[in-house]
Amino acid sequence: MSTRAEAAGRAVALPYGGAPAGDAEMGAPASRVDPAKARQRKLPTPKPLTQHGPARVIAMCNQKGGVGKTTSTINLGAALAEQGRKVLLVDLDPQGALSVGLGIPAQQLDRTIYNALMEPGTSLADVRVATGVPGLDLVPSNIDLSAAEVQLVSEVAREQTLMRVLGPIRAEYDYVLIDCQPSLGLLTVNALTAAHGVIIPLECEFFSLRGVALLVDTIDKVKERLNPALEVSGILATMYDTRTVHCREVFSRVVEAFGDTVFQTVIGRTVRFPETTVAGQPITTWAPTSSGAAAYRDLAKEVIAL
Prior knowledge:
It contains 15 helices and eight strands. It has helices spanning about 5-15, 35-40, 70-80, 95-100, 115-120, 125, 145-150, 160-165, 185-195, 205-210, 210-225, 245-260, 270-280, 285, 290-305; strands at about 55-60, 85-90, 130, 135-140, 175-180, 195-205, 230-240, 260-270. It has an eight-stranded mixed beta sheet with strand order 3-4-2-5-1-6-7-8, with helices on both faces. Helix 1 packs antiparallel against helix 11. Belongs to the ParA family.
Protein backbone atom coordinates (compact mmCIF):
# COMPACT_ATOMS: atom_id res chain seq x y z
CA MET A 1 0.00 0.00 0.00
CA SER A 2 1.29 3.49 -0.86
CA THR A 3 2.24 6.12 1.70
CA ARG A 4 -0.80 8.22 0.79
CA ALA A 5 -3.15 5.24 1.04
CA GLU A 6 -1.66 4.41 4.42
CA ALA A 7 -2.26 8.01 5.49
CA ALA A 8 -5.90 7.69 4.43
CA GLY A 9 -6.18 4.49 6.45
CA ARG A 10 -4.71 6.21 9.49
CA ALA A 11 -7.20 9.06 9.12
CA VAL A 12 -10.07 6.59 9.44
CA ALA A 13 -8.42 4.68 12.28
CA LEU A 14 -7.52 7.66 14.48
CA PRO A 15 -9.34 7.72 17.84
CA TYR A 16 -12.64 9.49 17.53
CA GLY A 17 -13.83 11.67 20.36
CA GLY A 18 -16.43 13.80 18.61
CA ALA A 19 -20.20 13.75 18.58
CA PRO A 20 -22.36 12.29 15.82
CA ALA A 21 -22.97 14.41 12.74
CA GLY A 22 -25.36 17.28 13.40
CA ASP A 23 -24.86 17.23 17.17
CA ALA A 24 -23.96 20.38 19.03
CA GLU A 25 -20.85 20.91 21.11
CA MET A 26 -21.55 18.07 23.57
CA GLY A 27 -19.01 19.52 25.97
CA ALA A 28 -15.78 18.50 24.22
CA PRO A 29 -13.34 21.30 25.20
CA ALA A 30 -10.56 20.32 22.78
CA SER A 31 -12.97 20.46 19.86
CA ARG A 32 -14.14 24.01 20.52
CA VAL A 33 -11.19 25.41 18.60
CA ASP A 34 -12.03 25.52 14.90
CA PRO A 35 -9.13 23.64 13.24
CA ALA A 36 -9.95 25.08 9.82
CA LYS A 37 -9.80 28.66 11.02
CA ALA A 38 -6.54 27.99 12.86
CA ARG A 39 -4.85 26.99 9.57
CA GLN A 40 -5.93 30.03 7.57
CA ARG A 41 -3.27 32.48 6.39
CA LYS A 42 -3.42 35.55 4.17
CA LEU A 43 -2.95 34.52 0.56
CA PRO A 44 -0.96 36.62 -1.93
CA THR A 45 -2.67 38.11 -4.97
CA PRO A 46 -1.61 36.18 -8.11
CA LYS A 47 0.48 38.01 -10.69
CA PRO A 48 -1.21 38.83 -14.00
CA LEU A 49 -0.25 36.74 -17.02
CA THR A 50 1.42 38.12 -20.13
CA GLN A 51 0.53 35.05 -22.20
CA HIS A 52 -1.67 31.97 -21.88
CA GLY A 53 -1.03 28.22 -21.99
CA PRO A 54 -0.14 25.48 -22.07
CA ALA A 55 -2.83 24.45 -19.63
CA ARG A 56 -2.32 22.58 -16.39
CA VAL A 57 -4.91 19.79 -16.36
CA ILE A 58 -6.60 19.10 -13.02
CA ALA A 59 -9.07 16.28 -12.37
CA MET A 60 -11.72 16.92 -9.71
CA CYS A 61 -12.18 13.39 -8.46
CA ASN A 62 -13.99 11.47 -5.75
CA GLN A 63 -15.85 8.19 -6.25
CA LYS A 64 -18.40 9.23 -3.63
CA GLY A 65 -21.23 11.40 -4.92
CA GLY A 66 -22.58 14.51 -3.24
CA VAL A 67 -19.26 15.80 -1.94
CA GLY A 68 -19.29 19.12 -3.82
CA LYS A 69 -17.19 17.99 -6.78
CA THR A 70 -19.23 19.67 -9.52
CA THR A 71 -19.85 22.77 -7.40
CA SER A 72 -16.12 23.08 -6.80
CA THR A 73 -15.30 22.61 -10.49
CA ILE A 74 -17.67 25.40 -11.53
CA ASN A 75 -16.69 27.87 -8.85
CA LEU A 76 -12.95 27.21 -8.91
CA GLY A 77 -13.04 27.67 -12.69
CA ALA A 78 -14.93 30.95 -12.36
CA ALA A 79 -12.58 32.19 -9.63
CA LEU A 80 -9.53 31.34 -11.76
CA ALA A 81 -11.10 33.24 -14.66
CA GLU A 82 -11.57 36.24 -12.36
CA GLN A 83 -7.81 36.16 -11.82
CA GLY A 84 -7.23 36.56 -15.55
CA ARG A 85 -6.69 32.87 -16.31
CA LYS A 86 -8.26 31.20 -19.33
CA VAL A 87 -10.08 28.10 -18.13
CA LEU A 88 -11.74 25.15 -19.85
CA LEU A 89 -14.17 23.01 -17.87
CA VAL A 90 -14.67 19.45 -19.11
CA ASP A 91 -17.85 17.65 -18.05
CA LEU A 92 -16.91 13.95 -17.88
CA ASP A 93 -20.05 12.84 -16.06
CA PRO A 94 -22.97 11.41 -18.10
CA GLN A 95 -25.36 13.10 -15.67
CA GLY A 96 -24.22 16.44 -17.12
CA ALA A 97 -24.43 18.27 -13.79
CA LEU A 98 -21.55 20.59 -14.67
CA SER A 99 -23.32 21.68 -17.84
CA VAL A 100 -26.63 22.19 -16.01
CA GLY A 101 -24.87 24.16 -13.27
CA LEU A 102 -23.66 26.64 -15.89
CA GLY A 103 -27.04 26.97 -17.58
CA ILE A 104 -26.07 24.96 -20.68
CA PRO A 105 -28.94 22.79 -22.05
CA ALA A 106 -26.65 19.84 -22.77
CA GLN A 107 -29.52 17.41 -23.45
CA GLN A 108 -30.47 19.53 -26.46
CA LEU A 109 -26.96 19.72 -27.93
CA ASP A 110 -26.08 17.69 -31.01
CA ARG A 111 -22.40 17.35 -30.07
CA THR A 112 -20.82 16.89 -26.65
CA ILE A 113 -17.70 15.40 -25.09
CA TYR A 114 -18.96 12.00 -26.27
CA ASN A 115 -18.48 13.01 -29.91
CA ALA A 116 -14.99 14.36 -29.27
CA LEU A 117 -13.97 11.11 -27.57
CA MET A 118 -15.55 8.65 -29.99
CA GLU A 119 -15.56 10.36 -33.40
CA PRO A 120 -12.11 10.80 -35.03
CA GLY A 121 -13.23 13.84 -37.03
CA THR A 122 -14.56 15.77 -34.01
CA SER A 123 -12.30 17.81 -31.71
CA LEU A 124 -12.90 19.48 -28.35
CA ALA A 125 -12.80 22.81 -30.16
CA ASP A 126 -15.83 21.64 -32.17
CA VAL A 127 -17.95 20.87 -29.10
CA ARG A 128 -16.90 23.50 -26.56
CA VAL A 129 -19.29 26.33 -25.72
CA ALA A 130 -18.81 29.70 -24.07
CA THR A 131 -20.27 30.31 -20.62
CA GLY A 132 -21.57 33.54 -19.17
CA VAL A 133 -18.22 34.08 -17.44
CA PRO A 134 -15.49 35.80 -19.48
CA GLY A 135 -12.48 33.51 -19.92
CA LEU A 136 -14.43 30.38 -18.96
CA ASP A 137 -15.41 27.77 -21.58
CA LEU A 138 -17.16 24.43 -21.22
CA VAL A 139 -17.06 21.06 -22.96
CA PRO A 140 -20.58 19.81 -22.15
CA SER A 141 -21.84 16.31 -21.48
CA ASN A 142 -25.13 14.47 -21.46
CA ILE A 143 -26.42 10.91 -21.17
CA ASP A 144 -24.75 9.96 -24.47
CA LEU A 145 -21.45 9.79 -22.58
CA SER A 146 -22.64 6.70 -20.70
CA ALA A 147 -22.14 4.72 -23.91
CA ALA A 148 -18.48 5.76 -24.09
CA GLU A 149 -17.62 3.71 -21.01
CA VAL A 150 -18.62 0.55 -22.91
CA GLN A 151 -17.30 1.57 -26.33
CA LEU A 152 -13.87 2.55 -25.02
CA VAL A 153 -13.22 -0.96 -23.72
CA SER A 154 -12.43 -2.22 -27.20
CA GLU A 155 -10.29 0.78 -28.17
CA VAL A 156 -6.49 0.65 -28.43
CA ALA A 157 -4.87 2.70 -25.60
CA ARG A 158 -8.36 3.33 -24.26
CA GLU A 159 -7.09 5.00 -21.07
CA GLN A 160 -5.36 7.72 -23.10
CA THR A 161 -8.33 8.79 -25.25
CA LEU A 162 -9.08 11.99 -23.31
CA MET A 163 -5.39 12.90 -23.15
CA ARG A 164 -5.17 12.68 -26.94
CA VAL A 165 -8.18 14.93 -27.57
CA LEU A 166 -7.02 17.46 -24.97
CA GLY A 167 -3.59 17.80 -26.56
CA PRO A 168 -4.45 20.19 -29.43
CA ILE A 169 -6.43 22.58 -27.20
CA ARG A 170 -4.13 22.91 -24.18
CA ALA A 171 -2.18 25.80 -25.70
CA GLU A 172 -5.28 28.02 -25.58
CA TYR A 173 -5.87 27.73 -21.82
CA ASP A 174 -4.10 28.10 -18.50
CA TYR A 175 -6.20 25.50 -16.69
CA VAL A 176 -8.36 22.57 -17.74
CA LEU A 177 -10.62 21.32 -14.93
CA ILE A 178 -12.21 17.89 -15.45
CA ASP A 179 -15.35 17.08 -13.49
CA CYS A 180 -15.23 13.29 -13.06
CA GLN A 181 -18.19 11.02 -12.51
CA PRO A 182 -18.69 9.57 -9.01
CA SER A 183 -17.04 6.23 -9.77
CA LEU A 184 -13.60 4.80 -10.51
CA GLY A 185 -14.48 3.52 -13.97
CA LEU A 186 -12.79 3.95 -17.34
CA LEU A 187 -13.85 7.57 -17.81
CA THR A 188 -12.31 8.52 -14.48
CA VAL A 189 -9.13 6.63 -15.36
CA ASN A 190 -9.05 8.64 -18.60
CA ALA A 191 -9.25 11.85 -16.59
CA LEU A 192 -6.44 10.74 -14.26
CA THR A 193 -4.29 9.71 -17.22
CA ALA A 194 -4.75 13.13 -18.85
CA ALA A 195 -4.23 15.15 -15.64
CA HIS A 196 -1.18 16.73 -14.07
CA GLY A 197 -2.89 16.97 -10.70
CA VAL A 198 -5.93 15.74 -8.77
CA ILE A 199 -8.06 17.78 -6.40
CA ILE A 200 -10.08 15.57 -4.05
CA PRO A 201 -13.20 17.32 -2.70
CA LEU A 202 -13.91 15.68 0.65
CA GLU A 203 -17.10 16.25 2.57
CA CYS A 204 -16.33 16.69 6.26
CA GLU A 205 -18.24 13.55 7.19
CA PHE A 206 -16.90 10.21 8.41
CA PHE A 207 -18.19 7.99 5.60
CA SER A 208 -16.60 10.29 3.01
CA LEU A 209 -13.30 9.88 4.80
CA ARG A 210 -13.50 6.08 4.55
CA GLY A 211 -13.46 6.19 0.74
CA VAL A 212 -10.29 8.26 0.43
CA ALA A 213 -7.94 5.28 0.81
CA LEU A 214 -9.52 3.53 -2.19
CA LEU A 215 -9.33 6.68 -4.31
CA VAL A 216 -5.72 7.39 -3.38
CA ASP A 217 -4.82 3.79 -4.19
CA THR A 218 -6.38 4.19 -7.67
CA ILE A 219 -4.47 7.44 -8.20
CA ASP A 220 -1.22 5.71 -7.29
CA LYS A 221 -1.92 2.84 -9.71
CA VAL A 222 -2.57 5.30 -12.54
CA LYS A 223 0.64 7.14 -11.64
CA GLU A 224 2.63 3.91 -11.68
CA ARG A 225 1.17 2.41 -14.87
CA LEU A 226 -0.16 5.22 -17.06
CA ASN A 227 0.81 8.73 -15.93
CA PRO A 228 4.08 9.13 -13.99
CA ALA A 229 3.54 12.92 -13.77
CA LEU A 230 0.27 12.59 -11.83
CA GLU A 231 0.19 14.14 -8.36
CA VAL A 232 -2.45 14.88 -5.74
CA SER A 233 -2.68 18.69 -5.92
CA GLY A 234 -4.68 18.84 -2.74
CA ILE A 235 -7.60 17.67 -0.63
CA LEU A 236 -10.42 20.20 -0.44
CA ALA A 237 -12.65 20.11 2.63
CA THR A 238 -16.25 20.83 1.61
CA MET A 239 -19.62 21.20 3.37
CA TYR A 240 -17.77 22.28 6.49
CA ASP A 241 -19.96 23.25 9.42
CA THR A 242 -17.99 24.80 12.26
CA ARG A 243 -20.96 24.34 14.62
CA THR A 244 -20.60 20.55 14.79
CA VAL A 245 -17.92 18.62 16.59
CA HIS A 246 -18.17 15.91 13.94
CA CYS A 247 -17.09 18.22 11.10
CA ARG A 248 -14.17 19.60 13.07
CA GLU A 249 -13.10 16.13 14.16
CA VAL A 250 -13.10 14.77 10.60
CA PHE A 251 -11.20 17.81 9.33
CA SER A 252 -8.59 17.41 12.08
CA ARG A 253 -8.09 13.75 11.11
CA VAL A 254 -7.56 14.64 7.46
CA VAL A 255 -5.00 17.31 8.33
CA GLU A 256 -3.21 14.97 10.73
CA ALA A 257 -2.99 12.27 8.06
CA PHE A 258 -2.25 14.38 4.95
CA GLY A 259 -0.65 17.54 6.35
CA ASP A 260 0.02 20.27 3.81
CA THR A 261 -1.72 18.30 1.06
CA VAL A 262 -4.97 19.62 2.55
CA PHE A 263 -5.87 23.02 1.14
CA GLN A 264 -5.90 25.87 3.60
CA THR A 265 -9.21 26.98 2.08
CA VAL A 266 -12.29 25.26 3.46
CA ILE A 267 -15.70 25.39 1.75
CA GLY A 268 -18.45 25.92 4.29
CA ARG A 269 -22.10 24.95 4.06
CA THR A 270 -24.34 27.69 2.68
CA VAL A 271 -27.76 27.87 1.02
CA ARG A 272 -26.16 29.94 -1.73
CA PHE A 273 -24.74 26.88 -3.52
CA PRO A 274 -28.14 25.25 -4.28
CA GLU A 275 -29.34 28.66 -5.46
CA THR A 276 -26.50 28.93 -7.98
CA THR A 277 -27.45 25.58 -9.52
CA VAL A 278 -30.97 26.84 -10.20
CA ALA A 279 -29.60 30.13 -11.53
CA GLY A 280 -27.07 28.38 -13.78
CA GLN A 281 -24.27 30.64 -12.55
CA PRO A 282 -21.14 30.29 -10.42
CA ILE A 283 -21.37 31.74 -6.94
CA THR A 284 -18.79 34.38 -7.85
CA THR A 285 -21.37 36.07 -10.10
CA TRP A 286 -24.61 35.00 -8.37
CA ALA A 287 -23.54 36.04 -4.86
CA PRO A 288 -20.15 37.75 -5.33
CA THR A 289 -19.90 39.08 -1.77
CA SER A 290 -20.88 35.80 -0.07
CA SER A 291 -18.56 33.70 2.08
CA GLY A 292 -18.76 30.92 -0.52
CA ALA A 293 -17.49 33.22 -3.28
CA ALA A 294 -14.66 34.41 -1.03
CA ALA A 295 -13.69 30.81 -0.27
CA TYR A 296 -13.41 29.83 -3.93
CA ARG A 297 -11.40 32.97 -4.67
CA ASP A 298 -8.99 31.89 -1.92
CA LEU A 299 -8.88 28.38 -3.38
CA ALA A 300 -8.03 29.83 -6.81
CA LYS A 301 -5.09 31.67 -5.25
CA GLU A 302 -3.85 28.43 -3.71
CA VAL A 303 -4.19 26.55 -7.00
CA ILE A 304 -2.31 29.26 -8.90
CA ALA A 305 0.46 29.13 -6.29
CA LEU A 306 0.97 25.35 -6.70
